[in-house]
Amino acid sequence: MYEPDGSTVYARWTSHIVGNVYFHSIAVGSQSHYALNPYTYNRLGSPASAGCIRMTVAGSKWIYDYASTGTKVKIVTGSSKYPGPFGKEKTIKVTSSIHYDPTDPAVPDSTKKKDYAAGRISGYMTKSG
After folding, report:
1. Residue 13 burial by CB count (10 A; 0-12/13-18/19+): exposed, middle or buried?
2. Is the dihedral of CA 26, 30, 34, 38 positive or negative?
3. How many alpha carbons fall within 13 Å on the CB side of residue 18?
């Protein structure tokens, strides 16, 4: 994707909404699955762009796979009392040493399980997997 300043950023599973607004995973500076800024990841759910809908890799891939061109998508402002039709996903937090999205299917489960067991990922997995 091209930023207003002319720079290029990469976001996986990008789906166009309107104009320069997209559904996408968190934008990063390179095409690597391991280029994610953990601070930016932990800000999911808070405003941080000029209108795009930032999502986990799993969420943006779901939109990409199941909402074909022309599909009407209603974007609503949720709250803790009314989180929207699908509810609110569990919040996943990562420590400063994690530079990948824990929902990314391209990252091996063995890596995610090791990092969860070490306390570097919270709110995503359970001890049994």
Report:
1. buried
2. negative
3. 6
Q: So what's the pLDDT on residue 19? A: 84
User: For residue range 25-58, what is the model confidence (pLDDT) as tens digits?
Assistant: 998 888 888 999 999 999 988 877 778 889 899 9
Task: Please say whether the beta carbons of 24 and 14 come within 8 A.
Answer: yes
**Which neighbouring-strand residues pair with 10?**
28
Structure token digits, residue 77: 């402002």
Residue 127: what pLDDT? Answer: 55
39 three-state secondary structure: helix
Q: Reduced to 3 states, what is the DSSP secondary structure of residue 120? A: coil
CA atoms within 13 A on the CB side of 76: 10
Residue with the bigger pLDDT between 121 and 89: it is: 121
